[in-house]
Amino acid sequence: MVQDPEITELRRMIEEAQRIVFFTGAGISTESGIPDFRSPGGIWTRMRPIDFSEFLRSDEARRETWRRRFATDETMRRAEPNRGHRAVATLINRGKAAAVITQNIDGLHQASGVPANKVIELHGNTTYAHCLDCAQRYELAEIRVSFERSGEAPNCDKCGGYVKTATISFGQAMPAAAMIRAEEETLAADLFISVGSSLVVYPAAGFPEMAARNDTRLVILNREPTGLDPYADLVLHREIGVTLGEAVGNN
Ligand code: NAD
Ligand code: ZN
Asked: Taking CB atoms and a 6 Å cutoff, what residues make up the pocket around ligand 1?
């Protein structure tokens, strides 16, 4: 069989590496049926994001946030990890990759078998909610029942604070511990692989940039070009699942 030279090169870089760090964006989950933001037809061609100050300021913005969340609930709950997630999990579980830094909020890396302590979530997680004041955790199913009954956004039973999915909105502070760990992992890596991110959302996109500045080998796998392509050692404008699956040798 004739080997595809780009896949051969990616496989060789993976074999030579001792400590891979993955950096993932919405593109790794589109093959699981979750739309990304910036592809044609992506979420933002249809809705304006609600930023954090609006959420705090306005009852209507809080209701709208919860309406949107429940409108996508079926898609989120049905989504299963795909071949791209499985390839990442394989390299983590072989000890080849140390961590996955993700902008995704869908929990699919954990669902694919990556231990939770190796998933660094920069933008939080939308599969559960918490109180913004006391951090009490809430499950979405229970919130949904009360939201559909009362039509009001939920408040915390313990302290009355606003309850929000455990995600980081625009305008909300980044999670400090995750940011520190992401930096440590980036600087310790000898191969940094960015998968399915347009690399335009900061500070997240600062990590592949940091890898490039640190002379760490950088691979960018994304259907469309990104601003960091000129700094990468290997750029693959390809579909994620089949590319990672073939490079890692699994289904
Ligand atoms: P983005 O939408 O800006 O970019 C996704 C990129 O992935 C695009 O450039 C697109 O060309 C590429 N892509 C999509 N499907 C692909 C495939 N099958 N193969 C190859 N490339 C593919 O996403 P981003 O950079 O992650 O930034 C968006 C923000 O949106 C993040 O902060 C994230 O928190 C949030 N988000 C998360 C999810 C999720 O959790 N699944 C979904 C949508 C948005
Ligand atoms: Zn509370």
From this structure: 25-27, 29-31, 34, 36-39, 42-43, 103-106, 123, 196-198, 201, 222-224, 239-240
